[in-house]
Amino acid sequence: MRKAEITRNTAETKITLAVNLDAQAPVEIQTGVGFFDHMLTLFASHGRMSLVVKADGDLWVDSHHTVEDVGIALGIALREALGDKAGINRYGTSFVPMDETLGMASLDLSGRSYLVFDAEFTNPTLGNFDTELVEEFFQALAFNVQMNLHLKILHGKNNHHISESLFKATGRALREAVTLNPEIHGVNSTKGVL
């Protein structure tokens, strides 16, 4: 089973996180940030992976540390669960429509970290979640998984839909990339390593 458990404790957050790429349940998210819990649930459900997150952060400051540190922990856990990446597709791309919004995620589990983020929010908050933290989360995730991640909103107006489209699309693209392909022998790279 491709799975990992992470405990990450800092002066700002205490996080326990478990991911299993070969199971779809449980998905249990408790970060204290309702909108973020909703987004992570969508990410895991559309990525068809089990994800359990318990985060206690300094929410009396704001939700920045909690969101970023969960991104870091999730990235580390995914990297560990993937191991040497033998047999995986490596690449994944998904377009997800949400009513008036169309979002795209395209990624490469290359071992090289990069984020391209092309989305704008007109509302600074959704619940107790700052919309600028969408990019912060994906930055932390991409750099700790060690993947190239390109995110783009092709069109959209509703800030909830924009965020939801990106989280769903990333989950679906990641599912495509981590899927074991019997036609791939070893790692999917001419370098012989990812």
UniProtKB/TrEMBL annotation:
Location(s), subcellular: Cytoplasm
Organism: Pseudolactococcus hodotermopsidis
PROSITE patterns in the cross-refs: IGP_DEHYDRATASE_1, IGP_DEHYDRATASE_2
Designated name of the protein: Imidazoleglycerol-phosphate dehydratase
Family: Belongs to the imidazoleglycerol-phosphate dehydratase family.
Pfam families noted in UniProt: IGPD
Pathway(s) this gene product operates in, as recorded in its UniProt entry: Amino-acid biosynthesis; L-histidine biosynthesis; L-histidine from 5-phospho-alpha-D-ribose 1-diphosphate: step 6/9
EC number(s) from the headed UniProt entry: 4.2.1.19
UniProt keyword list: Amino-acid biosynthesis, Cytoplasm, Histidine biosynthesis, Lyase
